[in-house]
Amino acid sequence: MADESKPLDATDIVQIVASLQEWINGLEILDDHLWLEYIEESAGLGMCIKANGGDILNEYVDGSFYAEVPFIVYITVNSIPDGAAAAYKPLNDLGTWFKKNGPLGLDIGERREPDKIVMTRAPMDMTGKDESGNTTFLATYNLTYDEEAQ
Fold first, then answer.
1. Where are the chain's structural domains?
2. In principle, which of 9, 53, 68, 139 could form an S-S bond with 91, CB 3.0–4.6 Å?
3. Tens-digit pLDDT profile for residues 64-123
């Protein structure tokens, strides 16, 4: 085992986040499609998922390892009729589903076995309203998994 974590390869992170996006959309928890990036820069509204790095936590002699991929889900809205709690709801719903079901049904690729998925930072307003009157809310989640050696 390694004494310290080391960065996960960017290619692995991209593959895993794309798998998370597809899986979350298939759960039908969210009212809207979850995108890998914002829908359009001009509109800037909608939901997206973004990786927040990734680390190999333990590396074993045979080349297998245990890793984590923190990720953020953003929701950008133009109006919040029922206050921030309404905007937070989809983010909280994801966290609740993850707490109850873990990574049930998540396929993150050959040789990879999901271990845990949890909300690590509760939903929050990122920076208040922007110049267009849009507000972005986010929550942070963490996926840990095992990867077999090649």
1. 6-147
2. 139
3. 999 999 999 998 888 766 666 777 889 999 999 999 999 999 999 999 999 999 999 999
| Assigned CATH class of 6-147 | alpha beta
Q: How many residues does the chain have?
A: 150
